[in-house]
Amino acid sequence: MATEDKTISQNRKAYHDYFIQDSLEAGIVLTGTEIKSVREGHVNIRDAYARTEKGEMWLHNAHIARYDAGSYGNHDPLRSRKLLLHRKQIRELMANAERRGYTIVPLKLYITRGVAKLELGLGRGKKQYDKRASVAEEEAKREVARALKMRR
Fold it and tell me: Which residue among 40, 62, 98, 104 is least enclosed by CB atoms within 10 Å?
């Protein structure tokens, strides 16, 4: 029986601001009210980033809204969350992130088999002219697709 991933949030800004070199899947440690809020889709990972601290990988600046039906035990929406990776994966990411211009950005948050997962990407920042070139390339592809569609 195949399981379907339910995408909760995608970080489209990451593909606009970075050249994504590599990606990997990480688990994320959430509290009870956080996972309920994630399942409802109240998540924003646009400005989030991952960083290593004391040999562990942490997700910073990801906004998971407070759970509406939560009580006094509700979570802080912008708290740092621990990411679950193997030590070898963390060492590889740290070594790559220490290279000039590389950063670790979340690309997608999804739920698979009832567990929240985060796709992390290793990206190198784009310059302004790179962004303009990417936008021009996308528009050219759209124009070609429109022209082909019109011919039919």
Answer: 98
Position 137 in a domain? no
We report the CATH number of the domain holding residue 84 as 2.40.280.10
Domain count, the chain: 1
Nearest in space to 91 (alpha carbons), one of 143, 40, 24: 24
Residue type, 87: R
38's CB contacts (< 8 A; 6+ apart) are 8, 30, 64, 109, 111, 116
User: pLDDT (tens digit, 9 = 90+) per residue, 4-17?
Assistant: 678 888 888 888 78
Asked if the structure places residue 146 within a domain, the reply is no
Domain range for 52: 6-126
Percentage above 70 pLDDT, the chain: 96
Question: Which amino acid is residue 84, in one-letter code?
Answer: L
Q: How many CB atoms lie within 10 A of CB 53?
A: 10
